[in-house]
Amino acid sequence: MKYSLAPLMILLATPAAAHLPEGEYGSFLAGVTHPLFGLDHVLAMIAVGLWAAQIGGRALWAVPSAFVLSMLVGFLVALTGLSLPLVEPMILASIMVLGLVVAFALRPVPGLAMAAVAVFALFHGHAHGGELGQAQALHFGAGFAIATAVLHAAGLLIAFAAARETRHTSALPLRLMGGATALAGAYIAFG
Fold it and tell me: For the chain, what is the domain count?
């Protein structure tokens, strides 16, 4: 079987590498690297792409787009100084819930999936804005939005590769990836 090594590579990412030294926040590079090297971000954002592929149709672009747009709203909310309760628990919940919807191959209408990911994305974006401090928001925000979109695209590509091998986007490999994502989220949260 020719399955992608991407899921294994995802599990090798380390959360500590996502944080740059003080003073380097605000750069475009800091915005790009933060989601790419934090396991919590990688797992949740790839799961969004996997789920969008399972739903199919307009969800292929609408679900990831809803995530990125809502994440930017959360980022702006944080920059204005408004707080959101339970930011970290909601980020951890997003990993587990998104993993489970992929594991169970749930296929709601795209609007419902968009709303679900938008809620989680609000908290992901708020966390990015809360870590930024007084740095240059525009560059950092552009970097993490692009990196997030790339991770969503990676999830879509993984799903398409699995579908090509198994002839179906709800096939066992994707469902196993979803289950592994949910378990990893539980381990990060409670381990």
Answer: 1
